Amino acid sequence: MNDIAHVTPTFEDVLAAAARIAPHAHATPVLRSRTLDALAGCELHLKAEHLQRAGAFKFRGACNAIWSLDEATAARGVVTHSSGNHGAALALAARTRGVACHVVVPEGAVAAKLAAIEAYGATLHRCAATIAARETRTAELQAQLGAELVHPYTDPRVIAGQGTAALELLCTPERFDAIVVPVGGGGLASGTALSVAARSPGTRLYLAEPAGAAETFASLAKGERVTGFTPDTVCDGLRGTLGEINFRMLRDHGAQVLTVEDADTVAAMRLFWQRTKQIVEPSSAVALAAVLKHGPLFAGQRVGVVLSGGNVDPDALPALFARA
Amino acid sequence: MNDIAHVTPTFEDVLAAAARIAPHAHATPVLRSRTLDALAGCELHLKAEHLQRAGAFKFRGACNAIWSLDEATAARGVVTHSSGNHGAALALAARTRGVACHVVVPEGAVAAKLAAIEAYGATLHRCAATIAARETRTAELQAQLGAELVHPYTDPRVIAGQGTAALELLCTPERFDAIVVPVGGGGLASGTALSVAARSPGTRLYLAEPAGAAETFASLAKGERVTGFTPDTVCDGLRGTLGEINFRMLRDHGAQVLTVEDADTVAAMRLFWQRTKQIVEPSSAVALAAVLKHGPLFAGQRVGVVLSGGNVDPDALPALFARA
Question: Which H or E run contains A138?
């Protein structure tokens, strides 16, 4: 375990991350829609991270981690366990620096996602579909290759990188009443908290969480991290366990959680598609759904929403839409 | 029948249209994708008309027609027959000026599309699902209300308006080797020909046409307008009959037609979705598919593609993707 994993990142780290990733990551546009504003009863500013490289905000954190490595560490490569957006993001980020990237993936992972990770040049390492097998294989690769672990959401370099999305949003001339981001493991949420606290402390931070995976809601309500949930949600990017460091940062910030039913998330995804011709994945649409379902909280206000990613398999869509 | 229907528009009309619609229409972005460039073997500049108001380039022509009306004509309103993108575009354009809009729609038209037209404030007039019934009802409304007919693609004001999309593309610093646009009735195609001829005469103009509705291909090959086809294509926006004025303009320009099978169009739509998170309708994707299928024509060149619209019904998608 590397020491950095125990350091809580600060807003200075977010600023450093912004400078570090600028040559590689997109400064994504902020989308507006008259129709959505009318439906939501507020002024929505939608940070389009589905247009980020590799299709999700995850590239920010991964890129910051990769370009934070000293030369000797970089030469030994990085490793992570994720068959989703973080795996692809780390693979692409590693390629921007010519760093070897190893991704531990469980048996049964979606073939298309594995192909995407490989297409970005990473090496796949298959293991059994249990957390234990995954962690064992990852530890082996760390020991064997000296590869640096880049955890999807507890790594402070990742958290600082994810904070750059909200930083860009808050650098626009608008003064936001509220910012809404999805929460799963908590990397984006805790990074966003850093940027909000430093740049716009009067802005309320809301975390949109699937009702079928509401451990952040439970944890913040209880004042201690609650784990052991079995997630049941179409938001495949939000099924991870809230990290300890992420929990502490969100608790200390005073973030509030809005839970959202899957049917509302899918309806928001459809609506967004029809009105803006943009594909966002359910794990992004949950944030828009939260605003639409909790109208009175936002009435007449200026609201920033981070649309976290757009990686949807076209073939999975009919089943998804059947949920709405 | 109004006299204007017999006047062939010029590039001056396109310039006038650009000024006229500027306060109302979006100057849509031009999208780039490293991945698509690599797949196509050329440099693609994608004019994103799916992000135009009402979701298609049709708003340009409709808006130019509406704002070209003199006060007296405007006071009597406009009429058209289209249950598709032109109907919605004319309804929205009419609303920007407070002009009454009447849309004749056949029995059996898609309910969601009619709802969209009504939501923009137009009055629907239902008729039997034949061309004769449609034309009769339209003529009645012209006579009864004194409403001005705005034909979807033969109206010179509409053609001039559609030409503004290519005008914007050609106002970027890039020098294009080729421009590719979809062709159905020929409004966009003939408007584009005006802009290309005036602004970049060395740029080749290609028209992408579904193989199952290839009357423009047949007409230009024969040197006279061939009609009477029964269209069979998923490109619902390209099933109309090539207009006489549009045929003449395209013939005189020397435009070339590339026919595309529906399976290739749907595959291009999927690819574009996955790589850019943008939804374009099949009638747009046909142009991208034409470039991908005719690689040698464009190898190493700078190619402009007008992505004409993005109005896809999510529920229709599974059947659509089953065609690829």
Answer: helix A131-145
Q: Are B125 and B105 in contact (CB under 8 A)?
A: yes
Give the CA distances from residue A25 to residues A9, A14, A58, A152, B183, in Å, rounded to whole numbers and listed in that order: 20, 14, 10, 17, 37
Verify whether the Cβ–Cβ distance A279 to B270 is below 8 Å. Answer: no
Does residue A203 share a domain with residue A309? yes
Specify whether the CB–CB gap between B134 and B81 falls below 8 A: yes
Which of B149, B169, B185 is the C-terminal boundary of a domain? Answer: B149
- State the Cα angle at A284 between A280 and A290, rounded to 5°: 125
Whichever domain contains A80, its CATH number is 3.40.50.1100
Degrees, nearest 5: CA angle A189-A291-A258: 50
Residues whose CB is less than 8 angstroms from the CB of residue B199 and which lie 6 or more positions away in sequence, other chains included: B11, B167, B170, B171
Instruction: Scan for tokens 């528009």, then name that residue.
Output: B9
Torsion of CA A272, A278, A282, A287, to 10 degrees: -60
- Nearest chain B residue to A278 by CA: give it: B278
Contacts of B22 (CB under 8 A, 6+ apart): none
Helices A156-170 and A11-21, interaxial angle, to 10°? 80
Q: Which of B55, B274, B317 sits opposite A277 (nearest CB)?
A: B55
> What ipTM does this complex have?
0.87
Closest Cα in chain A, distance from residue B50 (Å)? 7
Same domain as A183, residue A289? yes
Q: Residue A314 and residue B317: Cβ atoms within 8 Å?
A: yes
pLDDT of residue A22: 97
Tens-place pLDDT, residues A76-105: 999 999 878 999 999 999 999 999 999 999
Q: How far is A72 from chain B, CA to nearest CA, in Å?
A: 31
Per-residue pLDDT averaged across A26-52, rounded? 95
Sequence-separated (6 or more) residues with CB below 8 Å from residue A117: A83, A87, A88, A91, A103, A105, A124
Of residues B73, B61, B74, the one with CA closest to residue B14: B61
Is-contact B269 B10, C-beta < 8 A?
no
Of B277, B317, B321, the CB nearest to A310: B277
Contacts of B50 in chain A (CB under 8 A): 277
Q: Which one-letter amino acid corresponds to residue B93?
A: A
What is the edge-to-edge ordering of all strands in the sheet holding A123-127? A123-127, A101-106, A78-81, A148-149
Which segment of A115-124, A125-134, B43-52, B195-204 scores lowest on mean pLDDT?
A125-134
Using DSSP, state whether A323 is helix, strand or coil: coil
Residue A195 sits in the same domain as residue A290: yes
- Write the CB contacts of A13 (distance below 8 Å, at least 6 apart in sequence): A156, A157, A159, A160, A163, A194
> What is the rounded end-to-end Cα distance, in angstroms, of chain B?
43
Identify whether the C-beta of residue B37 lies closer than 8 Å to the C-beta of residue B267: no
Which residues sit opposite B107 in a β-bridge? none
Q: In chain B, helix, strand, coil percent, each to 5?
A: 55, 15, 30
Q: Which residues of B touch A315 (CB under 8 A)?
A: 321
Does residue B61 have a pLDDT over 90? yes
Domain that holds residue A75: 59-149
B28's tokens? 């849509």
